[in-house]
Batch of 3 targets.
Target 1
Amino acid sequence: MIAACPIVLSPIRERPTKQNAISNSAWVRTVTSTVLLRLATAAVVASLAVTAHAQVVTQYTAGISSSTRFITKGPDGNLWFTEDDGISGEKTAIGRITPAGVVTEFSAGITQDAHPGAITAGPDGNLWFAEAAGVGRITPQGVITEFTVGFSVNPAVRGITAGPDGNIWFTEGGTSRIGSITPDGQVTELADIGYGTNLGEMITDPGGVIWFGMNNDVGKITPDGTIYIASQGPLFPDDGSPGALTVGPDGNIWFTEDQPNIGMITPAGVAKEFPTGVSPYLYHLGGIATGNDGNLWFQVVDGRMGRMTTAGQITFFNTGVPANVTPYRMTLGPDGAFWFTELNGHAIVRFMPSSTVTVQIVTFGAPSNVGIGQSETLNATASSGLPVTFTSQTPLTCSISGSTVNGLSGGSCTIVATQAGNNSYPPAQATQTFNITGGIIPQAGYWWDPAEGGNGFVLEMQANTYAKPGDLFMAVFDYDVSGRATWYSAGVTHGQTEDSEWLNTTSTYANGTTLTGTYQPATFSAYAGDLTIYFTSPTQATVSWYGAVKQIQRFDFGPGGSQAAQPAGTPQTGWWWAPTEPGRGYAIEVQGGTMFLSGYMYDAQGNPIWYASGPAPMTNAMLYQGTWQQFGNGETYNGSYKAPALANPDVGNVTVQFTSATAGTLTFPNGRQVAIQRYAF
């Protein structure tokens, strides 16, 4: 080992700065006045040392076919990175590498010349990445979706991070805009913030503040939606533009600069620069990350790694990586090592310093099977003695309250016990999977047999408790022997016959209100037999009726499908009605801003008939405008399948103006309006 040799550098110059709060009516709820705070860039003295410390460096090239750019830790315990040679027509991909070094590339779904860049773990359990024309999303299974609708022309998205509001935030280097995208793909762009066209990378601190780099300056977005810029002029002159950012062990934001210095800014806006001694004429800095040892680690493109204390003491380590591959961005892996990309190399590098942290192990005892409505205390300990937290990987089946697991519906429950680590120990996890026994609570909405499109089911369960599933109300929509669209009511059913099985008596009604007619009460027509439905999961079931057995599942029709979380305030999925017009009703479901509406009413002869509108995009979050359509000549429930025909593609217009998630006004083709609301049964 070579002893560290400190070199004292001259202090960085001291200069006044200002902090400017920018109001943006497209973002903040109320207009705020401009705030100017005088700050000072503190004078600092950094000491540097060079060492030939031993460390473990591993370079992984197998399975990587392009230059690697940005890297992040995924929700699955693997490292995810973007690949792009930056040349038109060359292959681009998203890569995944396990802590053991096994690489998988995913390129299906990426548009040619999309140029994927910064990547982050999203709040929805997926990975989100920047592209030249928008934003991309990749699931842990490798399914890629690109989002370009709602972006300005040539946005050149650069920074990306998960925000405190459950959305993904991004910067646009080509437009000087900041924007956000919901997990289901709804884009909001803010106005040009007016500070040049060099918005850069982003990061979110533990307090929910989003930080971003820009032209020789730093900006932040507080959870209330206010944008702050650190100064009215360059905060860091002479090419001090921030590159990579990280949250430091002291809670401040640390970043690399072009100059090349290390910069720091406190939440209050006090900024400092630390010189690294790296020649600005030969090399620049790459990524930066906080290590488990409580220090900051950064890359130099000549292949060295720098370790820096929050007081400014810097020690360099030789990784053995040649300078011509250009180490670019890095992240702290789940194994306590640093993983970094190579801008001019087809590789991922793992760097474990010699001062490795002590490994800890989480021991997680297998819980007993838990019933619906039952709870059990979980038992997991870490060898470090640090506290363990629990999360549910199957929230539809089981939930977590502290260290208690609650059974919600029958099926497999997977719980992860996590010790987050500290300066002495890296993070550690253990997983247990067990069964939740008892009845299953199905998801509300549209269900179908994918092999028999054109008919299906609408079902909803209400008054659910942990003790038992609640009341089930469902309808079957198909065709009678003449080919006319018809429907049957199957509910309300109070309770199960046994675990996850329900017996419903189906009925038909007649002589009720037509689509555009004045109200008249419907009359009971006939019983249509018993229907049995057995749920195998919250999204799958077996239906037996009229001697025919069908395997049905949730119907996915919008972005993200039926399993995607919907934004707060979205119209609720399930049964709706007009209390002043009993006897007919409506099924409404919204998936990713796309709405499917069906109406159950009567024709001019008094026969039950259904009309459908959509699936079609909503005009906005609270307004749907569409067209009623009528189908016919489909199969009877127990007949041989035949695809229905579109009997009338334009029965008339329909508008639903929602006033809340549970109420609205429906306008019929003749202009007649009726107030509708959620149907409570």
Target 2
Amino acid sequence: MKAVTIRPARAADIGEILRLISGSNLSSWSREDLETDSRDSRSFVLVAEREGDIGVCGFAHARSVPSNLAEGGNELEICNIAIDPNSRRKRIGNQLLSELVRRSSHLSPKMIRLEVRASNSNAIRFYGAFGFRTCGIRKSYYEAPAEDALLMSLRPEQRK
């Protein structure tokens, strides 16, 4: 198996990230949003590269946001994770998610949250195996096609 390197995204990676977004039926983010978040110390845009391959084979994007929990603090909101179809089932998504959690630890998030299409059983299984649990539904959250979102969350100290 080829070695995978996880690193912060650079401006030159944004085009590859946008390609992954468009090919994965993910919530769309603009080039400007990704460039801004890649420079923000409270956001994370990470890319994965496989040894010997040219270009990005996956990415993860997350932001620190104020918590609405009673104890206050902040939360890590997972915006998107996508893996190139030719690189799936090689644990790259797990490596990206683990690295997001590791890099966000200095912000001491009380909770890690995300939304996922209710029909995306692969993503639901992936996050569930990582320790995320379904905690709610956002009705008609997604467009094209219209669909509910499952809310999933994980307390960092409860990670499997």
Target 3
Amino acid sequence: MGAIKGMNVSYEIPFISNPCNHDKRIHFFGNMPHLIKLLRNHLLDQGIYLSENRLIDKEVLKKLIDADSSELKLAPKLRHNISNVSGTERMKVALAVKLLFKHTAFFSKVCLSQSNIIHEFFNQFDDFYDIFNFQISKKLKPLKSGFGMKFTDLTTKRNL
């Protein structure tokens, strides 16, 4: 925290100028697990308006879960228990990640074929999560590599 304060980064101004390219910024994200839980809780409690005035909320998730209620599941991690969290369950990062993960993006594209915007929301969240949750270089998911290890893939994918 001391280094971040020394760079004058705050909640109001969460970035610094990139020392290598002053036209770009370096943004700081604190407490990533907490941000993930907040996003999930907001989605379940109030919903999130996407572009085209499209709302993604608990009802959309319920439709997805209900559509996958057959014996052969296309999205086995997508269950009612991860969309009905309360009490201390709201503090579990794993449940939030399961709800907002790439399998939900895939299944929303299959189930809600008219809504690419919902698919893209979940897909972008998955990419965002991969960038901030890297451990080792991953061949299948280049965004899960530390920034710089797959720099070409990262810049191409996110137009950096």
